[in-house]
UniProtKB/TrEMBL annotation:
UniProt-annotated stretches for the region Disordered: 1-26
Membrane spanning residue stretches: none
Protein name: Threonine aldolase
GO MF assignments: L-allo-threonine aldolase activity
């Protein structure tokens, strides 16, 4: 009983420390003079409203009536997405979780098979609390657990029939990885050989054009349906779209209503999505190119600082996001990152550090407009300062 009470107290103390660190990191994001990425959701409400008011007139006539249950400005966004992705139709959804569940249950009804083949690291398997099976009656089966995109042979070797293959492009939890164009076409063909449809989880599909060397409509054209997000890369308030054949999209709209996704008015979110398509989409290739500069500088900076082992993954980022692995405890890394921002106004690592193994931390790095101002020399200087702070925090912990 005494041990249980002690354990509970220790857990409460640890949780409080983590909450304090999260709050300090949030403040650091808002106040730092130099960041690699300053996502819109970190702005104040006043700042977000001001930016939307400034940008929205450039993407839609604000003298038009507002939307009601998915018409007007919502339809304009849907048409824009369908055009960009080269599909017959598209439907706006409040969340990607809802959009993908509905898409795959619609396909299950058409194929007669509720089994969905997907990667073990795919978003529905890791981040959605078994929603596929508990909410939508789908049966997920894992193609592979390896931290890389699935191969055509693995798709062919799935031990049971499946009605749909879901591919996350890029595979975020494996390091924002994309297959080569040849590998992707082979995987799609392998699914076709098994009479399965192909659905792309394209939450971050927008920035995949550089790696594939293909336009969006050609990439999306490989799949039977595609989901895209408006806030992950386009810096919108939220929202998602499902794109594909008109008959599928019309059926999905029916299910959208049943799932509670028929929102009365959605114009702030939709306008922010249109702004993102106008402002951020054309810049994504530039972000991807500079992410490769930043990744190389990080790798060189840690080597120069004498860190015994580091990993920038992938070595050449496939998108404008990638992972950094360091041989230190996550609490040490998180504290050092925040101290650097508090002490210098430079926030090199703004995302949380997760445990990658004993004494090993991993974080995600995103390069957006703010990051374009960083030279390779700026990155290396920030790395040297960060490593010094890691050493400082490590010494404090060991005392």
């Amino acid at each position: 009983m005494i041990r249980s009470m002690t354990d509970t107290a220790e857990q409460s103390t640890e949780q409080s420390a983590q909450e304090r660190l999260r709050e300090r990191r949030s403040v650091a994001h808002r106040t730092a003079e130099r960041v690699l990425s300053r996502a819109g959701f970190r702005r104040t409400l006043r700042e977000q409203l001001a930016l939307l008011q400034d940008a929205a007139p450039r993407v839609y006539d604000l003298d038009e009536p507002g939307d009601i249950y998915g018409n007007r400005v919502v339809e304009a966004l849907e048409e824009r997405v369908a055009t960009l992705l080269g599909t017959e139709s598209a439907a706006f959804f409040p969340t990607g979780t809802m959009a993908q569940q509905i898409a795959l249950r619609c396909w299950a009804g058409r194929t007669g098979n509720p089994t969905v083949a997907l990667h073990a690291l795919a978003h529905p398997e890791v981040h959605e609390r078994d929603a596929f099976s508990l909410v939508s009656g789908l049966h997920p089966v894992r193609v592979t657990s390896e931290p890389r995109p699935p191969t055509a042979d693995e798709v062919r070797d799935v031990a049971e029939p499946f009605g749909a293959l879901m591919l996350e492009l890029p595979l975020r939890d494996a390091g924002f990885l994309l297959p080569s164009w040849e590998e992707l076409t082979e995987v799609v063909e392998a699914a076709r050989e098994r009479d399965a449809v192909v659905h792309f989880d394209g939450a971050r599909l927008w920035e995949s054009t550089v790696h594939f060397g293909r336009p969006l409509d050609e990439i999306a054209g490989l799949a039977d349906s595609v989901y895209v997000s408006f806030y992950k890369s386009l810096d919108g308030i939220g929202g998602a779209a499902l794109a594909g054949p008109k008959t599928l999209v019309e059926e999905a709209k029916t299910w959208r209503h049943r799932y509670g996704g028929m929102v009365f008015q959605q114009f702030p979110t939709v306008l922010s999505a249109l702004v993102g398509l106008e402002r951020e989409l054309p810049r994504l290739p530039e972000y991807v190119a500079h992410a490769r500069v930043v990744a190389a500088a990080l790798r060189e900076g840690f080597a120069d600082a004498g860190v015994p082992w580091t990993r920038v993954h992938p070595e050449e980022p496939h998108t404008h996001e990638f992972q950094v692995w360091l041989p230190y405890d996550t609490d040490v890394l998180g504290e050092a990152a925040v101290r650097q921002a508090e002490g210098t106004g430079t926030l090199l690592f703004g995302a949380p550090w997760d445990r990658g193994g004993p004494g090993l931390g991993v974080t995600e790095v995103t390069v957006r407009a703010d990051g374009l101002m960083w030279t390779a020399g700026d990155v290396k200087a920030a790395v040297a300062d960060f490593v010094a702070r890691v050493t400082e925090v490590t010494a404090e912990v060991s005392r």
